[in-house]
Amino acid sequence: MEGVISYNGSSWADQWDPTAPTSATNNSGATAKYKQKVGGGLEKTKFVALTAMKKVKQGTSSGIQWIKDKLESRTRSIRQLRKWSDSRHDELRSS
Fold first, then answer.
1. Measured torsion, CA atoms of residues 66, 72, 77, 83, in degrees rounded to the nearest 10
2. Backbone phi, then psi, for 50, in 5-degree steps?
3. 24-60 residue pLDDT tens
4. Within 10 A of 14 (CB to CB), how many other CB atoms are there?
5. Nearest-angstrom CA–CA distance, 31 and 24
6. How many Å from the N-terminal Cα to the C-terminal Cα in the chain?
7. What distances in angstroms separate CA 79 from CA 57, 75, 87, 88, one per listed residue?
8. Cα 9 to Cα 18: distance, rounded to the nearest angstrom
9. N or C: fewer beta carbons within 10 Å in the chain?
10. Which contacts qualify for 52-57: CB closer than 8 Å, 24 or more apart?
11. Is the pLDDT of residue 92 over 70?
12. Of 18, 51, 73, the residue nearest 81 (C-alpha)
């Protein structure tokens, strides 16, 4: 599809923004400054993501340890209950 060309040979977009686009050579300082800002932003993002991942890892580790402790405690309680039940059963048999 061809763009709409006005009477003076410019496109529709050029009519709304008549300023001439700047060349890359004139804009190299701004480009470098922009890249530096973006790079700084990426470093901050990387730092925040790394910190978040450490917290997730620590939380997951704590959660898994809590589950293991609860399972161990329950298993220990069940063993003690079985031991008591067996000893009680033996006492009742011998009576």
1. 180
2. -65, -45
3. 455 677 777 777 777 777 888 889 999 999 999 999 9
4. 16
5. 9
6. 103
7. 33, 6, 12, 14
8. 12
9. N
10. none
11. yes
12. 73
Length of the chain: 95
C-alpha span between 85 and 79 (Å, rounded): 10
Distance CA 16, CA 70 (A): 69
Structure tokens at 43: 């470093």
Query: Is 5 in a helix, a strand, or coil?
Result: strand
Reading the block at residue 21, the tokens are 């686009």
**Cβ within 8 Å of residue 6, ≥6 positions away:** 12, 15
pLDDT band at 1; cut points 50, 70, 90? very low
Side chain identity, residue 91? E
DSSP summary character for residue 11 = B
